[in-house]
Amino acid sequence: MHVLSFRSILLLLGVLLPMIHALTIPNQHGVVRRDAKEYGGYDNVVDLDRRAKKKPSKPTKPTSKKADPPPVNTPTPAPPPPVNTPSKPADTPKPSPSPSKPADTPKPSPSPSKPAVTPQPSSSKPAGTPSPSSSKAASSISSSSNSGSSSSSASSSSVSSSSISAYIIPKPTKAVDTCLLPGVDCWGDFTDFDGVLDGSENDGELTRRNPNAYSYHVLEKRGDRPFDASLGGSGTLHFESLGYPAADKLFEDSKGKKLTKHGFNFTSDTMTDLSVKDAYKLPTKGSGWVVEHIVELQSVKRFIEAATTAGELSAVVPGQFFTDYWNKPIPKPDFDGRTQPTTYKGANWKKAENRTLNNLVFQALGSTYNRAEFVLCDSQINSYKERVWSFSSPMADDKFEQYTKDVVTGGITSNVHLSAIRTTLAVFSYLNNAEISKRLKQAVANVKLELANVPKIHNQNHNLDTLWEEFMKKHMEEVKDHGKEWLTKSINLAKKAYADEKKKLEAIKADLKKGTKNQAAIDKEKATLDASIKKLQTKERAAEKAVEDAEDKVAKATGAKKKTEKKAQEQAEVEHYKALKTLNLEKRKAHVLVLKNVDDLIDNINIAQKQLTGYETEVAKLKVPSAV
User: Fold this and answer.
1) What are the Low complexity biased-composition ranges (predicted)?
2) Residue 302 backbone dihedrals phi, psi, to 5 degrees
3) Is residue 306 within 8 Å of 421, Cβ to Cβ?
4) Which of 170, 270, 173, 69 is nearest to 600 (CA)?
5) Hey, is 229 helix, strand or coil?
6) Distance (Å, rounded) from C-alpha 131 to C-alpha 135?
7) Is 488 within 8 Å of 504 (Cβ atoms)?
8) According to the 3-state scheme, what is the secondary structure of 332-384?
9) What pLDDT digit, counting tens, does each position of 568-625 carry?
């Protein structure tokens, strides 16, 4: 038997060790975990999935693998590479190619008919499958954001030593639910409350409720919401909207089962897909569906203020009319004898205090008794719509600016702030859906009919019905103009931020190509970064644990204690975000030590810029449905 020489053994080990290493490389889903223990595996990810418990997401099939490190040196090492040529060891397996470009190249397609992954309204959000917002899409910031990530294995001339290994540069393609980001509260806390479903009201009779029983946020969107309308300088009118069912009751009790079920959600969670589709599934508590008033309740307040203010509409209604008649009981014969909408059977209120013009108008927009006007909607789309409708910023301007800064500098991935733009565009896709635009017109017509009864029920004639129609036409155009204004401003801000960061990266790239840093300096810098990142990872994990502990306390708390614990949780989320951003910024310092990584960072900016250009195209085509 021939005995292997010592030199032969070394050569054999040089071949076998890389192969063994390749077999133990974790798949891509494993790479996205923040506690990446692979040597030099600094992924740039953010996990902000803090505000809603969900089932573990099913790992996605890896699309690329981290490149193997250089092989073990043999007694006869290869000569050093030329100064400006990337090193390419002969024995190193070639890294898997990046996914095809279509996955990362934005092609905004707001067509509702676009075939895509069907949304699943559940508390679990597998990668690539959108669901209403309680199944936080922010998990996409970590796992999905790495979809299509490329392994930066090639080293520049100044980083040819095996002391620097591959760095993961994520290429995010999946959207996140921005309403669940730290410091961004779109619609308040509705964990334990959604709708006001009262038995007697379900039969048509209203029951007065203690206004202190619910928080302001709950009243604002989910119950008998209070309003105070300014009457053109002649005082203030106080009134309340009507309650309505919770999402899981809307279509599922004896009254709801008679209705056609509709639930609108994103067609997919792809960043370039702006479309919305009817994707109703039986909702469960906390599933992310909310009951949607297509004509927002705030419209009534805005109409009253416009009607009593000179220059807003074609005529001015005396404020005294609303003071005297808006909440005044209607005599039973006049109430019963009025012309009623045909799309629903109105409530037969027996109590005089319930038979008011106010209640008839809000019933026409949708209530526990009249459910025909309602659809279910993803809570993020719903909240963004409410903000656009009220001429507020879909995401607060200071928040969007801060997230943009964090994105371009490497603190978080681009899908965070781009998702705010995408969701705003999706609001208009939703409004223009055939079913929604039809229901919007019907709700406007129903209110018009009730207002046309005023001369008969109150012996007053101020042409409220024609003024309402005029108001809604004007309002819808203003919604479009406001949406365009915010989108244009936000896109321009993002474009400038990306352009500025790209210049910085181009300068870093030029220096790396020159090879001005020697290998010893790079190794020393990496060692320093290794130590720093390790400490920051420990801090980040502690901050994450604090959030998890806070979530547990919120889940166990009740009453006023729950509100206190919720505030503590939100603060813990903010602290975790800070810790994670600090960690990712430190990782960015490691990214820019490698020429190939810098190229990937620049490529990410190019992708984001192209995506913004696609969004700009959609903004130019923005439209709203007719209100009549």
Assistant:
1) 121-162
2) -65, -35
3) no
4) 170
5) strand
6) 6
7) no
8) HHHHHHCCCCCCCCCCCCCCHHHCCHHHHHHHHHCCCCCCCCCEEEEHHHHHH
9) 999 999 999 999 999 999 999 999 998 999 999 999 999 999 999 999 999 999 999 9
Q: Given the structure tokens 């509260």, which residue do they identify?
A: 185
* Below-50 pLDDT ranges, the chain: 1-2, 18, 20-129, 134-166, 188-222
Contacts of 505 (CB under 8 A, 6+ apart): 592, 598, 601, 602, 605
Amino acid at 346: G
Determine contact, residues 91/15, Cβ cutoff 8 Å: yes
How many other CB atoms are found less than 10 A from the CB of residue 554?
22
The model carries a pTM of 0.74
Whole-number Å distance between alpha carbons of 126 and 137: 10
**Residues 368 and 197 sit within 8 Å (Cβ to Cβ):** yes
User: What's the pLDDT tens digit per position in 421-454?
Assistant: 999 999 999 999 999 999 999 999 999 999 999 9
Phi-psi category of residue 128: left, alpha or beta, with phi > 0 → left and psi -120 to 50 → alpha: left
Edge-to-edge strands, sheet with 375-378: 276-278, 263-266, 375-378, 289-292
Residue whose tokens read 């004639």: 461
Instruction: Please state the three-class secondary structure of 379-436 as a single string.
Output: HHHHHHHHHHHCCCCCCCHHHHHHHHHHHHCCCCCCHHHHHHHHHHHHHHHHHCCHHH
Q: What secondary structure does DSSP assign to 297-312, as a single string?
A: THHHHHHHHHHTSTTT
